[in-house]
UniProtKB/TrEMBL annotation:
Subcellular location: Mitochondrion matrix
InterPro entries per record: ClpP/crotonase-like_dom_sf, Enoyl-CoA_hydra/iso
The protein's annotated pathway: Lipid metabolism; fatty acid beta-oxidation
Leading EC class: isomerase
The protein, known as: Enoyl-CoA delta isomerase 1, mitochondrial
Organism: Tinamus guttatus
Length: 279
């Protein structure tokens, strides 16, 4: 693929990536790679709330593939260029009033984002101000801004939809069955202190210290031999990844048939109307 060729070219010329970091940017994602440390920073820049739209997911997967294919990149810090939100989660407009073909393309993009991120060989650190729960859960470590006005959670139930099994599996692996069950049923959005208490995030720090703390944590993880960490990560995560890979097409078809139901479309329209009234 073009991305794989790009990765091979970068490895052949070690200075290329640093010199051409701008070429690593696109409309919704900004990637900065420090060749010396092997650390990349991925900034979400899709106003107003970095929602996981089809376009955003496509650009994100391309960026992740480029980083994964560059052997000089060992770790990634994910953060937001937009104040007060990391990501609002799945883009509701991509799930409402669209064609069957669009729903298929959108859900496959969601799957690919998770498979690439959850199964990444790189160390992945989420530096979160607010929201973006599935993405953050898929990373190795989560640092959240210490602000009780910031919250995080999988709120699909509030939209009238159901989190798929691989969302659930990811959540259970982080917080345990009981917390995940209660939170998913209620579609709870947890304030930062509660998110720390429940184990959804690993640390709280002042918002202005997010990047500094993420870099420090990443340095600790990168002090370990890559092969030992990568094999351990694969051992822990492979059963969950394999479950989606095995049932990927069934999962797409289930999503499409579910999301196209008029009752679900009505719930989504109602939720969008509620959001518009808040603005």
């Amino acid at each position: 693929s073009r991305a794989q060729a790009w990765g091979r070219s970068a490895r052949q010329r070690p200075g290329l990536l640093l010199a051409q970091s701008r070429a690593f940017s696109n409309n919704k994602i900004l990637v900065e790679l420090d060749e010396g440390s092997g650390v990349a920073t991925v900034k979400f820049k899709s106003p107003p709330v970095n929602s996981l739209s089809l376009d955003f997911l496509t650009e994100l997967c391309i960026s992740l593939e480029k980083l994964e294919n560059n052997r000089g990149c060992r770790g990634v810090i994910f953060t937001s260029a937009i104040p007060k939100v990391f990501s609002s989660g799945l883009d509701i407009t991509d799930m409402c009033g669209k064609s069957t073909e669009h729903y298929v393309e959108f859900w496959r993009a969601v799957q690919q984002m998770w498979l690439r991120l959850y199964g990444s060989n790189m160390v992945t650190i989420a530096a979160i101000n607010a929201r973006g729960c599935l993405f953050a859960l898929s990373c190795d470590y989560r640092i959240m801004a210490d602000n009780p006005k910031f919250y995080i959670g999988l709120n699909e139930s509030q939209l009238g939809i159901v989190a798929p099994f691989w969302f659930k599996d990811t959540f259970v692996n982080v917080v345990g069955h009981r917390v995940a069950e209660r939170s998913l049923q209620l579609g709870s959005l947890h304030p930062a202190p509660e998110a720390l208490q429940l184990g959804i995030v690993d640390e709280l720090v002042p918002e202005e210290k997010l990047q500094e703390k993420a870099a420090a944590v990443l340095a600790q993880w990168l002090a370990l031999p890559d092969h030992a960490r990568q094999l351990t990560k694969s051992m822990m995560r492979k059963p969950v990844l394999d479950r989606l890979v095995t049932h990927q097409e069934d999962d797409v078809q289930h999503f499409v048939s579910f999301i196209a139901k008029e009752s679900i479309q009505k719930s989504l329209r109602k939720y969008m109307e509620m959001l518009s009234k808040r603005k």
